[in-house]
Specification:
mainly alpha; 3 helices
């Protein structure tokens, strides 16, 4: 919330100086009360989900390990099959890399035109 509020307060700060005692005495205690209630509400709501996650964690761990193993196997197979096909292309790209970079960096309209 402060990400959005702080820039606004920076700009309006000089205009709000005379209201500062009111903010400190009236609004700050109200803000603390409301924010505490909101935090307690969030804690109660999130506790259920955190508890469910902790209960499901051992089951999900084995599934995540299987997914990671399959993903790694797929990446190794992809690397094995694509490497011979991509190697000549990558070598050509490397050979002409500086010329290509110069061509990209040149202005479309010459500066003397």
């Amino acid at each position: 919330m402060s990400y959005y509020g702080d820039p606004v307060l920076e700009r309006l700060g000089r205009y709000l100086k005379e209201f500062e005692p009111t903010f400190e005495n009236v609004l700050k205690p109200l803000y603390v009360e409301v924010s505490t209630e909101y935090e307690n509400y969030l804690d109660d709501q999130l506790y259920r989900y955190i508890k469910n996650w902790e209960d499901a964690h051992p089951t999900l761990r084995s599934f995540a390990d299987q997914v990671m193993t399959r993903f790694r196997q797929g990446m190794e197979a992809l690397n094995k099959n694509l490497k011979p096909r991509l190697k000549p292309i990558l070598e050509e790209i490397e050979k002409y890399k500086t010329e290509f970079r110069q061509w990209v960096d040149t202005p479309i309209i010459p500066p003397n035109a």
